[in-house]
Specification:
Layout (H helix, E strand, L loop, with lengths): L2 H26 L44 E7 L3 E10 L3 H18 L9 E7 L3 E9 L12 E4 L3 E9 L5 H15 L7 E5 L12 E7 L2
Antiparallel strand pairs: 1-6, 2-4, 2-5, 3-4, 3-7, 6-8, 7-8
């Protein structure tokens, strides 16, 4: 039961009963006696002033609160292809975040060792999933292709094309709620998505507390 709604309905239902009882109470009250007229002459009426002559005592209205724009939910965008360094991996759902962080650390270390720098946010591209785990590509954008990379890391291009953008705020563990909302959105809109999805880490997952993560989720469309 939705308790707040229940009590609101109950309170609202009592209002007509209370209002209907008021005329009866007033009818039972005795009529006030009329006092005898006083022989003392009434004082002259007080001088009245126009509203413009009186000081304003009305409180000033508070300033409106700043408006905060809502995060995009299902916004259609076009992904731009980027040059990235990539490493492949697989993970179990129980240790998913730790595995992804390890892959991103490997990419960052290889890029730093080569003397390069990242040119954008790190990304995870999910290539397949099942009940126990998933396969993925960990990617970091670069402006210049590194010269000396280990065999487990290659240079490639990030996904491009039309996609829907969603935003997740919070821990990786709580992303199930975001993906459930995404699935419902796709069903409601009758949209057909490709068999992959992308997470772009707006906050650096190597330096940010997990419950303070901000992640853009992109769902490429067919």
């Amino acid at each position: 039961m939705n308790c707040p709604r229940f009590f609101r309905i109950a309170l609202f239902a009592l209002l007509p009963m209370a209002v209907g009882a008021l005329p009866a109470v007033r009818a039972q009250a005795p009529a006030p006696s009329t006092p005898a007229p006083s022989a003392t002459p009434a004082p002259p009426p007080a001088e009245t002033k126009s509203p413009g002559d009186l000081p304003s005592t009305a409180p000033k209205a508070p300033a409106p609160a700043p408006v905060q724009a809502a995060d995009p939910f299902g916004e259609q965008i076009t992904l731009t292809q980027k040059t990235v360094i990539v490493t492949k991996g697989t993970a179990n759902w129980d240790t998913a975040f730790e595995t992804l962080i390890a892959s991103l650390k490997t990419l960052s270390a290889a890029l730093e060792k080569d003397g390069g720098k990242s040119a954008g946010n790190s990304m995870i591209v999910y290539t397949s999933t099942d009940d126990t785990g998933f396969s993925y590509l960990a990617e970091i954008p670069v402006d210049q292709e590194p010269k000396n990379l280990p065999k487990t890391i290659t240079v490639a291009k990030s996904p491009e094309g039309k996609a829907l953008k969603f935003v997740h705020r919070g821990s990786y563990e709580n992303m199930d709620n975001t993906y459930e909302a995404i699935t419902n959105h796709l069903d409601d809109k009758k949209l057909e998505a490709k068999d992959t999805f992308i997470e772009e880490y707006i906050t650096d997952p190597l330096k940010t507390e997990e419950d303070k993560l901000v992640i853009n989720v992109y769902v490429p469309l067919k």
